[in-house]
Predict the structure.
Amino acid sequence: MYSKKLRVVKNVEVIPGHRLMGLEAHELAMAAAPGQFLHVRCSETLDPLLRRPISVCLADRERGTVYMLYRIAGKGTELLARVKKGDFVDVLGPLGRGYSLPQKGDGVAVLGGGIGIAPLYFLLECIKGIYGPDTDGVSVFLGAAAYTAIPVLDQVRAMGFSVHTATDDGSGGFKGNVVQLAEEVLGGRYPDRVYACGPLPMLKSLGQALGDHPAAEVSMEEHMACGVGACLSCICRVRAKGEEPEYAHVCKDGPVFKLRDLCLA
Amino acid sequence: MYSKKLRVVKNVEVIPGHRLMGLEAHELAMAAAPGQFLHVRCSETLDPLLRRPISVCLADRERGTVYMLYRIAGKGTELLARVKKGDFVDVLGPLGRGYSLPQKGDGVAVLGGGIGIAPLYFLLECIKGIYGPDTDGVSVFLGAAAYTAIPVLDQVRAMGFSVHTATDDGSGGFKGNVVQLAEEVLGGRYPDRVYACGPLPMLKSLGQALGDHPAAEVSMEEHMACGVGACLSCICRVRAKGEEPEYAHVCKDGPVFKLRDLCLA
Amino acid sequence: MKLEVNIGGIIMKNPVATASGTFGFGLEYAGFVDLSRLGAVVVKGTTRLPRPGNPAPRICETPAGVLNAIGLENPGVEAVVEKYLPCLKDYDVPVIINIAGDTVEDYASLASRLDGCQGVAGLEVNISCPNVKKGGMLFGSDPDSAAEVIREVRAATRLPVIAKLSPNVTSIAAVAEGVARAGADAVSLINTLLGMSIDIKSRRPALGNVMGGLSGPAVRPVAVRAVWQVYRAVGIPIMGMGGIASASDALQFIMAGASAVAVGTANFVNPRATVEVLEGIESYLLENNIRDISQLVGAAHQGI
Amino acid sequence: MKLEVNIGGIIMKNPVATASGTFGFGLEYAGFVDLSRLGAVVVKGTTRLPRPGNPAPRICETPAGVLNAIGLENPGVEAVVEKYLPCLKDYDVPVIINIAGDTVEDYASLASRLDGCQGVAGLEVNISCPNVKKGGMLFGSDPDSAAEVIREVRAATRLPVIAKLSPNVTSIAAVAEGVARAGADAVSLINTLLGMSIDIKSRRPALGNVMGGLSGPAVRPVAVRAVWQVYRAVGIPIMGMGGIASASDALQFIMAGASAVAVGTANFVNPRATVEVLEGIESYLLENNIRDISQLVGAAHQGI
Ligand SMILES: Cc1cc2nc3c(=O)[nH]c(=O)nc-3n(C[C@H](O)[C@H](O)[C@H](O)COP(=O)(O)OP(=O)(O)OC[C@H]3O[C@@H](n4cnc5c(N)ncnc54)[C@H](O)[C@@H]3O)c2cc1C
Ligand SMILES: Cc1cc2nc3c(=O)[nH]c(=O)nc-3n(C[C@H](O)[C@H](O)[C@H](O)COP(=O)(O)OP(=O)(O)OC[C@H]3O[C@@H](n4cnc5c(N)ncnc54)[C@H](O)[C@@H]3O)c2cc1C
Ligand SMILES: Cc1cc2nc3c(=O)[nH]c(=O)nc-3n(C[C@H](O)[C@H](O)[C@H](O)COP(=O)(O)O)c2cc1C
Ligand SMILES: Cc1cc2nc3c(=O)[nH]c(=O)nc-3n(C[C@H](O)[C@H](O)[C@H](O)COP(=O)(O)O)c2cc1C
Ligand code: FES
Ligand code: FES
């Protein structure tokens, strides 16, 4: 875990409003695990003040490059979009606890909603590394508002996975959301390993679909200040024993949690 | 007077720590007079918040380009230095009251200390326009800490003026300040027209040297918020009749004042 | 779409005004903004006699904010009435005079001088200026003294009276209650936060007057909170201000309970800020199918 | 060069501490900063019993600032003593426990529990937290109730007692005088400014707890002013904080009268902020030929 100014080697649009940034970061590339995130300064001035959490989308260990796939959502990501190749970006990371990797042969379902693909892309790379060419047991479900709004879809396909798509407007694949799609494709029989990342409503409906699935893991989002567990701002509710609410901290205890430990209602 | 985002056509270092920025601005180039200034946003974010006043250093009416010569002094000018050709900069102007131009044949002395050359450069261009090739009656005195720290010296020389230089460290020309230099060269006989811009101590000693000179004009600096006379922040003391202090507003009543109207003590 | 609001008897055709002291007497910005498009112009703090204001430096930039110590420089009420008001008559916009004094009598005398003056739509009573030695914020620091000033002003004029409150108090709601009981038709808040900055090179205060008033985006959360608290405490209309630079900033104030808003420091950064705030509010109403801006006033209190 | 300062009996080897609640229990930042280099570590607000804190969202960014409504989530004093203090023993740094309670008795009981506890250098008494329903800022809003808490704490412990003051008052100097008379060995200021933000999409308060505390560079001018005023009012040492992000920020506080400073929100932006502030202060002293940091304390008051 370190804080450094990293040289930008790439910062390009992948689909409208979504960009891929590559950073020269040998140590970071070695250290990062799928599901972990970087805490990024988007400006050197005091506005915006706080860092922005962005998942590691890929760590190319050979070249020493770390990638972030990000959606332009507001002030911070807009400034990030303007950074040019050769500029430097101040990054803290890798932070948080990532996904636990499957063992070769485990049945796997991966569900990504919108920009939720970002950490899953890294996960899929790792799964490919573990599984080799035989990834039949791995089903990937990606969704977005429209077919052209699913980021890095071709790249995921190019990894060799069988990818099912869902779109709200029916412009490609299943018309509906990824959870409905997975339900339909899997016929309600979820494999040993389920990994997801996406908007809260998607995670909620996945929770309903999966019930008490022992290994399903999801990545959570919450507004963050420190990113290292010091400020106690990034809470999410977890199942509690008593009456009092119990909270976990997304930046430190997560961002990846076992779905059944969460209290998403 | 308008507020616009102008395209940057040039932003280059002229001497260490000093840069020249050219802006595509036809209207502004037509409207600007020497001594007037622009009020420049150095960042699109809220930090730094206020605009920075920078003199018009040259208005090229034919090409429709306005130039600013600036010293990197802090946060705002540092951000300005990073702006690239093709970027846009938000500018308000031309603001304030400039120098009154001499009539052909008037004896003229121009004194610039450090970055104080910026508005005087434009003034000299205008004087050249009025006087034609015969600029014998015009003496230019430029000073800085060291010879290599006098901005655009060669360019002023190239205009055809006889330029005298003063340096604190004696690295070029007279060892001392511009006022002492002018005193020496002119033998205490100041011409009809005296124009100056530079740090406050320089203007103060010029005031002492000139006594009640009826036409000497100097450009003043004060921290500004609005730049248009609305906030009443940019005061300088002027000679008052009564006991109470009397203030003028640099952005509106100046930045150029008759030296004898000011209360610089 | 209805944008008109009524601030204690002042009919504004839309909720966007200028904050006193940041817009001169209106004319300084007339080249950038058609004053007739504004809901109201609130002019610079005006005193009985002319005042030179504080020594330099009067302004100092801070993170996302500005400290000022102008010290109520103004030409005095007679010059305002004779020189500035006539120029503003060319515009179709209510003019609100911000008045300030050293004593309760000063306020009362200003109020009666301006009573019945052509072209004056209302008075904003500045009991919250941090930059003067006497009067100003001292009056606004305590519900009783604040009420006393308002009572006397109320008695001296038939004009709508807006009390301008200071955030530098333990309970702004208590002061609001005080002035409401004393007869204020509306309140405006917030004036600047008391602050200071030190120049570490000279090891001296950065402002000539040592302390100053903090304004700009930096103070917006304090201002929104103040509007929220005052909305719950009193029933009179609120003019909200403090760090408004965009329509979404302004909407925060409206949802917190302000019927109108004023743009201050942002004018320095963007001379067209007032009009852009107005246009942004219009778009928001349109996009959200809201017919009348009053539907949004205090909307964020629902269920809390 | 002498950097050592004495804050009411706590000897700090240099004037740079961490602000409570922004540095966890110290260990979260141990990977970035050698804790032994710091003047002091002030830990998260600690209560008698564990507290879950407020519902989400707990944080919201504002211009050059941050609103938080953590609500004193903490594991309770027993866990702090048993789990966290032992880990901090490995570092050569005084540990100051920030204590908070709903009642005066809570404070007294915390103070006596921590009295004589190995590894505790002093107590910072948080009578200024804006994010809890009972206690907190309510105690700090009035000189008398503030003094009452400090008096009881003073009676319950032999440890140095630092009263942490709220800026949300009409006169912070009056509160400082109250706690000084009640036996506080030092004061620290400022805690956060009461603020709020509204999410205009949902038309709801942006924080789960409605209002929150504003911190970060935005509040620095208010904090420097508070230090300036309190320095003139009381003789006990001041720990200054509020928006410090750089050495020059810290020097402003020192010249205004703070003997020590604490870095808060800036840690989130730059985890090495504390050490960088310290190094910058060292350079300033060196460049300006100042042998002892104490020569700078209150320097800006000279002649005013
Ligand atoms: C662990 C984690 C990993 C993430 N990974 C990615 C990723 O790989 N790609 C990507 O595009 N986005 C990711 N996000 C979301 C991303 O952090 C936000 O989109 C981003 O912070 C928005 O900042 P902004 O300034 O552009 O928007 P603004 O709306 O201007 O931000 C204002 C404030 O809200 C916070 N905020 C806004 N949206 C979110 C959000 N969804 N989650 C947390 N804080 C938010 C910002 O951090 C900032 O403090 C991730 C979030 C988390 C918590
Ligand atoms: C009428 C006028 C014309 C000017 N023309 C030029 C020019 O042509 N070239 C040039 O290099 N400089 C010029 N200056 C000075 C220039 O405005 C400052 O150097 C600049 O504002 C510094 O900003 P900063 O953010 O880099 O420095 P910072 O020190 O970070 O600025 C902090 C604050 O102080 C103000 N400030 C700092 N120094 C000055 C100053 N000397 N005068 C006024 N405000 C100041 C800034 O505007 C800002 O609000 C002019 C100033 C005035 C008033
Ligand atoms: C330079 C300046 C001068 C001001 N003068 C006055 C004044 O004369 N009377 C007054 O009531 N408020 C005055 N104010 C306060 C503003 O009207 C407003 O209440 C405050 O600045 C908060 O709004 P803002 O953050 O949008 O600027 C002044 C503010 C500034 C920045
Ligand atoms: C997230 C957060 C949590 C805080 N928790 C506490 C606390 O538990 N006790 C306390 O006295 N102050 C707390 N504070 C206030 C800080 O200690 C400090 O007084 C304030 O933030 C101003 O300093 P800054 O601007 O450098 O952050 C907290 C501040 C923040 C931002
Ligand atoms: S962001 Fe600070 S604890 Fe998670
Ligand atoms: S800068 Fe506002 S009056 Fe001059």
Remarks:
- The CA atoms of residues 48 and 110 of chain D lie 6 Å apart.
- Chain D is about 30% helix and 20% strand.
- Residues A 231, 233; D 19-22, 44-45, 66, 68, 70, 72, 98, 126, 129, 164, 191-192, 215-216, 219, 241-244, 263-266 surround flavin mononucleotide (ligand 4) (CB under 6 Å).
